[in-house]
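Re: that chain you flagged

S.,

Sorry for the slow reply, it's been a week of failed gels. I finally had a moment to sit down with the sequence you sent. For the record, here it is as I used it:
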Amino acid sequence: MTVRRLLYLVVAVVAALFVVWLVLFLTRGDTSSATGSDPYPDHAEGVAFVDEAVVYDDLGRMAATANVVVRGTVTEVAPGATHQYTPEQSVADETDRVLTVRVDEVVANGARGAPAVGTSIRIVEGWWSEGIGYETEGMPWSEVGQEGYFFLAKDSGPSGGYTYVGTTGRALLTDEGAEVSGDHHGDGPWDGTVGGKLVDSRAQAGADAHRAPSVADLRSRVLAAADLARRGVAKPMTLPNPAQPND
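Prediction finished late last night. Pasting the structure tokens below so you have them in one place:
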């Protein structure tokens, strides 16, 4: 074989290998968070179903149980503490999803020995594990820019912030009205709720009975509940203090 023919053969082999690589590259598929390459995706794909440790039948009692109740706006979402488990527990590590909320108004403070509230507050809401985001049933993830009322308990874990007093401990304020969290069966603290939409106290029976209330209507309910808690008319419920995972 001449040198020229050998060079032609080498060039042909290299060209063929390049074509194979190009085909594999173009058909490699999506390598985004769906494959777990992003450890902290922006949207939850998993839902955690929980048994409520405390079930509130009255908004005043929920306000009395909370360390603090604030109206605020979500300004940041970031990973928080990572909880590590032993191999015997057969649970993957979990990283807290932590909201930073600008405090626009302190509605209630001082119940259950609450510390002073600053200009912002940190709230654990959901978590990430193995590249998948998890939310609690009835509480979709809050997003940056959303405003709401937050009923909070001091977190005994490593976050140094707060958690919700329960899955009913949040009410987001939207253009359509107020959207409350939790699983509602007509006997929760948000009286007259249907599918997370608070029924307007002024609504009549019929089609209007399932519309969301105005922000003013929700505000009046929250302030009334906070007043009952402050005057001791509404009594707090006992929140459990579960053992923390191996941090």
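What I noticed first: Residues 3-14, 17-35, 204-210, 243-247 have pLDDT under 50 and may be disordered.

Talk soon,
D.
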